[in-house]
Structure prediction request, 396 residues.
Amino acid sequence: MVSERMYALGTKKSTIRTIFEYGKKRAAEVGEENVYDFSIGNPNVPAPEAVKTAVIDILETMDSCLLHGYTVAPGDPQVRETIAASINRRFGTAFAGKNLFMTSGAAAAITICFKALHEDDADDEFIAFAPYFPEYACFVESVGARLSVVPANTDDFQIQFAELEKLLSPKTKAVIVNSPNNPSGVVYSEATIRKLAELLTAKEKEYGHPIFIISDEPYRELVYGGLTVPYITRYYRNTLVCYSWSKSLSLPGERIGYIAVPDEVSDFGRIYGAIAGAARVLTHVNASSLFQRVAARCVDEPSNIAAYEHNGELLYQGLVEAGFECQKPQGAFYLFPKALEQDDRAFCDRAKQYDLLLVPGSDFGCPGYFRAAYCIKESTICNSLPAFQKLAASYR
Prediction:
């Protein structure tokens, strides 16, 4: 009667959402201040005042029928020109409006890229690097392709190139890069990106077809300690950039982002056309007309990273003092510490006894770890530290 696969996706909630909903229920029982919910990456920093100003000004000054009407499918031409100019100023690229396709957030952008690159009836494969955003699996499977995963390098969470080379094959269509990374918070170094570009270039020649990098960049602006995130199109020509303002401007519910397709990609016209076609069949008529224009107005608005950086340092120091092993935050707003037992799901279940809501690393393809999202109130982090101490003590 219905697609069993779609029914399973629609009725089986993600672990993250399940924990988040449990947290709401638990808060009603014991008080929100007594529940330490690190489950979900929902920004706690308000959107910049410039967003509110832009929304009000656009609503008050722009013709309502034009504002709320359809745009062309790739997005308003002036919006795309404005955003392209901003990218060029920041990263030394040469994009024009024709290189951008506006989307309803990064999830739509990534799924559109998978759909555009996967050839009908082909046994295509996409590759992710653990730890990885778990929705990649259902996005890839939804278009009829397969996802393969490179095991995590838990020393520093950079790419394990020997393992990647084992997985690369003539069936490989693209690899997915997510830096700053969800869930590890690690930024891929320039050396890592250069080595990845060199390997994929060699494999393109060996297989006789392009291998794309799909660069998933919703956390690009959230980096700490003076680190920079390499702009991958400058290192590898067959790169599709998927961006969202969900995190940088705290607009996750507004669903606004884009795909950047450089002129240098193999057969630009066919790639861009396939992206437009994939968006069409995925019922993506056009991204929000209002928030396309808001994004263009606020494209150079700096992200408020101070609160996230402070929270990350506070949680990191508290966990290290409690005895956890953890990489220091480099970007995004997650920590990915080692669990105190091999079974990370059992560890997270035990953490619930202390009202600590954590996500098992197994959900991100990296067993033995857990994710803690620190885009929450500073007071919640401070109040949680004694609970982490008690949790760690229970293993001694």
Notes: Residues 49-297 form a domain with the Aspartate Aminotransferase; domain 2 fold (CATH 3.40.640.10). The mean pLDDT is 96.
